[in-house]
Amino acid sequence: MDTPAPIDVLVSNHRAFLGFLERRLGDHALAEDVLQEAFRKVIGRPDRLPPDANEDTLVKWFYRSLRNAAIDQFRRKGAAARAAEAFARELDDTASAGADVHEEICACITRLASTLKAEYAEALQKIDVEGTPVKTFATERQLSASNAGVRVFRAREALKKRLMESCGTCAEHGCRDCHCGR
To answer: 128 and 60 share a domain?
Structure first.
C-alpha cells in the first residue's frame, strides 16, 4: 500500500487545520492567512518536513507549527498594540507641548507687535489674530480694499523686521526654540 505524499496529507486536513486556527485566533480571515502562510512554508521548504514521518506524525507536527504560528500572531498583535499606544502617548505629549510653544510664540509676537505703529498693530490684530477679512477691515476703517491690503503687507513686513531684530536666527527657523528676552 502506497503512503500519500506529505503535502497531500496536509491538504486533506485543510478544514481541520483551519478550524484549529479559527478557534485560537477568533478570526476566520486571519486563520486562513496564517494557514496559507504555513502551507507556503511547507511547499517552499519540503526539506523541513519531519524525516520518515507517517500520516499521524506529520499531522501532529503541522498542528505544532500552526500553534506556534498562532502564538507568533498574538505576539505581533501585542507588539503592534504597544507600538500604537506609545505613538498615541507621543502624540498627546506633542499636542500639549505644541500648545505651550504656541503660547510662547504668541506672547513674543504680541509683545513685538505692540511696538509697531498703531495702525499696523491694529491691522495685524484684526486681520491676522481675529480673522477679520481684509475687505471688512477696509470698510470699517473707510479704506479701499487695496489700501487695507497694502497696510497689512507693510505691517507684516515691519513685524518680521522686529522679529529679526529681537530674536535673530530664532525667527528664521520659525521661533521653535525661542530664547529672546521677554
So the answer is: no
Q: Tell me what pLDDT residue 36 has.
A: 92
If pLDDT is split at 50, 70 and 90, which confidence band does 182 have? very low
Rg for the chain, CA atoms, rounded: 34
Question: How many angstroms separate the CA atoms of 60 and 57, rounded?
Answer: 5
pTM for this entry: 0.45
Amino acid letter for position 31: A
CA distances, 177 to each of 16, 23, 90 (Å): 62, 54, 19
Long-range contacts of 147-153 (CB under 8 A, 24+ apart): 148/123, 151/119, 151/120, 151/123, 152/123, 152/124, 152/127, 152/128
Domain that holds residue 125: 114-172
